[in-house]
């Protein structure tokens, strides 16, 4: 993992830390969810608007370090919006506006002194549809390293990233072939290799397996669990079995952009506190 003191001061303007406030009894989060893990990301009373439409309402959520946190909920409830708020990808949407706090290691990522490009180096993203560059497999992984000037030992870094993305065995002999010639599942693992090559702390994944067949899905699921040993993973999924299988913590968003319940995945699936959550996870709606 990154050797820069767990990211403290690594992102321009991210040097200050504020102490998290203690939580109140009516917070949607349940005890034990983080299992003693340090909080890497915390939203406090986060609202997101697209023009006059409010997509997220007062979201309080903590993301534990080196765990997989799944964001689940019906279509349009704001899962992707929350994910994009974390590394300020919503900045790229003209009408998007954020209120409240989104803390990365205690520093609000929306403070004026935060450089979003530097932030995204620390918080990488993998999208629903595999989107390799129309370049060779090697160049796909090398791209971010070259942009950041991390070109010493570049072949070794590329190899390590492909190994961590569980792709090396399939591409070792064809690194100069186009990334677009890989299968969909391989392309997605290539995108994961690209995202981790620059050694981020957090990986945001927006339905990374939804465009893949069952075999490729299973490989990506195994990979996500492995990646959590080195990275903090936040994954949006529509697939509740997948959330139950691979996540440590689950946050349930429901229509209207509300976070209804968040906590230990087993507790959420086996014994949810809210009827609405139970109805959703048992398939009564959504
Ligand atoms: N670029 C945008 N411009 C305007 N409104 C948007 C934009 N992106 C999302 N929205 C709106 O914000 C709300 C939340 O959308 P979001 O994509 O975050 O939900 P989601 O839970 O990820 O949905 P899905 O599961 O279908 O991907 C929806 O009402 C959506 O129409």
From TrEMBL:
<keyword id="KW-0067">ATP-binding</keyword>
<dbReference type="InterPro" id="IPR003593">
    <property type="entry name" value="AAA+_ATPase"/>
</dbReference>
<dbReference type="InterPro" id="IPR017871">
    <property type="entry name" value="ABC_transporter-like_CS"/>
</dbReference>
<keyword id="KW-0472">Membrane</keyword>
<protein>
    <submittedName>
        <fullName>Phosphate ABC transporter ATP-binding protein PstB</fullName>
    </submittedName>
</protein>
<dbReference type="GO" id="GO:0005524">
    <property type="term" value="F:ATP binding"/>
</dbReference>
<feature type="compositionally biased region" description="Gly residues">
    <location>
        <begin position="1"/>
        <end position="10"/>
    </location>
</feature>
<dbReference type="InterPro" id="IPR005670">
    <property type="entry name" value="PstB-like"/>
</dbReference>
<keyword id="KW-0813">Transport</keyword>
<dbReference type="InterPro" id="IPR003439">
    <property type="entry name" value="ABC_transporter-like_ATP-bd"/>
</dbReference>
<keyword id="KW-0547">Nucleotide-binding</keyword>
<feature type="domain" description="ABC transporter">
    <location>
        <begin position="41"/>
        <end position="281"/>
    </location>
</feature>
<dbReference type="Pfam" id="PF00005">
    <property type="entry name" value="ABC_tran"/>
</dbReference>
<keyword id="KW-1003">Cell membrane</keyword>
<feature type="compositionally biased region" description="Basic and acidic residues">
    <location>
        <begin position="16"/>
        <end position="32"/>
    </location>
</feature>
<dbReference type="InterPro" id="IPR027417">
    <property type="entry name" value="P-loop_NTPase"/>
</dbReference>
<feature type="region of interest" description="Disordered">
    <location>
        <begin position="1"/>
        <end position="38"/>
    </location>
</feature>
């Amino acid at each position: 993992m990154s050797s820069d003191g767990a990211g403290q001061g690594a992102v321009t303007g991210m040097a200050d830390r504020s102490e998290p406030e203690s939580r109140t009894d009516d917070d949607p989060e349940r005890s034990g969810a983080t299992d003693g893990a340090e909080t890497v990301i915390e939203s406090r009373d986060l609202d997101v608007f697209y023009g006059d439409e409010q997509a997220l309402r007062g979201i309080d959520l903590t993301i534990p370090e080196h765990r997989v946190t799944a964001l689940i909920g019906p279509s349009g409830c704001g899962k992707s919006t929350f994910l994009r708020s974390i590394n300020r990808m919503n900045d790229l949407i003209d009408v998007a506006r954020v209120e409240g706090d989104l803390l990365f290691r205690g520093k609000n990522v929306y403070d004026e002194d935060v450089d979003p490009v530097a932030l995204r180096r620390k918080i990488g993203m993998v999208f629903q549809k595999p989107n390799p560059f129309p370049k060779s497999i090697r160049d796909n992984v090398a791209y971010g390293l070259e942009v950041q000037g991390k070109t010493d030992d570049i072949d070794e870094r590329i190899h390590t990233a492909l190994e961590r993305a569980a792709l090396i065995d399939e591409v070792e002999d064809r690194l100069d072939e186009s990334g677009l010639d890989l299968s969909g599942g391989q392309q997605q693992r290539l995108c994961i290799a690209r995202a981790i090559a620059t050694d981020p702390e957090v990986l945001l994944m927006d339905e990374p397996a939804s465009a893949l067949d069952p075999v490729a899905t299973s490989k990506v699921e195994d990979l996500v669990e492995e990646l959590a040993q080195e990275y903090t993973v936040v994954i949006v999924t529509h697939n509740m079995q997948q959330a139950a299988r691979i996540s440590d913590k689950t946050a349930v968003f429901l229509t209207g952009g509300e976070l209804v319940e968040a906590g230990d995945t087993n507790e959420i699936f086996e014994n949810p506190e809210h009827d609405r959550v139970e109805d959703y996870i048992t398939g009564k709606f959504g």
